[in-house]
Amino acid sequence: MSRKYFGTDGIRGTVNKGHMTPDIAMRIGLAAGRTFTRGDHVHRVVIGKDTRRSGYMFEPALAAGFVAAGMDVFMVGPIPTPAIALLVKSLRADIGVMISASHNPHYDNGIKFFGPDGYKLSDKQEKHIEKLVDNGVNDILVSSEHLGRATRMEDARGRYIEFAKSTVPSGITFDGFKVVVDCANGAAYKVAPEVLWELGADVVAMGINPDGFNINDGCGSTHPEQMCDRVVATGADLGIALDGDADRLILCNEKGQIIDGDQIMALIALNWHKRGVLQGGGLVSTVMSNLGLERLMQSEGLTLERTQVGDRYVVEKMRRDGFNVGGEQSGHIILSDFSTTGDGLVSGLQVITEIIRQGVVASKACKLFEPVPQLLKNVRYQGGDPLSADNVKQAVSHAETALKGSGRLVIRKSGTEPLVRVMAEGDDARQISDIVESICTEIEAVA
User: What is the pTM of this model?
Assistant: First the structure.
């Protein structure tokens, strides 16, 4: 059974179209509320959001559904996604909700769920919620005397700020460290600059004036160019660009050069290994991580375990096999010693900590391996399954044969858009380019 509403990271789509309407949001809240109503205790749900104008529509719609399911609702306003995972456990809530479409433009929005343990829901749980939504919610409405109530929680932001600061080891001070932080006019527009400033950093803040429509608009992790320019112009030591809900980051060094997510994972994992705190014997990432990272880990006697794309699958592997460092090349970094999900700000704090410990510039500290040539292209399609076409299958087969033993080929559909992502990597850059182009050409012929 395929999922109707949920994708690789919750529910996401264009506002007031398809399944991103207030009516469906209310029904999803009701279905999720009933799914997590267990026992006789007072049931609670924490709802956060980013800065999109449509959050004012989805927040009360979801709250109405949860109240109708008999849950007390705590609305915390704009706050990073990892803060919701934190607050679910802190408040002993039954479920947490983040209203955000992450790095997407303002006209999209989404709904992410966290269970009582602070982790994202499993496929099984999501399918159960979908079944309740589609089979009608009237049968699961509670009686009037069992309705929940909704309140606003005023100190949620402060709780997250204190938590983020606590992840920096005692004795480490950011005094004299200059950092540019681009908050994407999103969920971290207040907390990120404040955390860095309270830790002693000299902070240059960008993307801190949300108007409901400028989230991710020419700023943040999807548009880090301005951050890179500002780092060079101000002589900063590091640049941090967050996405709309601040669960991932892009970094740049003092030269204004982007630091790849694989390099971030390598920096943290190897330094934790040296200090004896790395767990699992390596790190977990997805099929998209560079072959160079895998070779580096092997050279250190460590492993790189790969999962399918999606931070939730990285987390599942980490939990199952006891790893405490994982993430995605795109900048979702999961450090399970601190959080149950990706946290862009906390990940940035760990990188700053390691740079300060080493006493070197970011361009040196954050370059641990030479990436193998890698090329990723997206091909948009209209309908059907282009990967089932014979010409595409033949092109893929030829590519796999050519790369055997010297590279990798990853072809997958996007979980949120009608795109086929074609990625190849290997030691021969020209060969990689030819392979990707040939497969994309065949996909376009049937798309």
Answer: 0.90
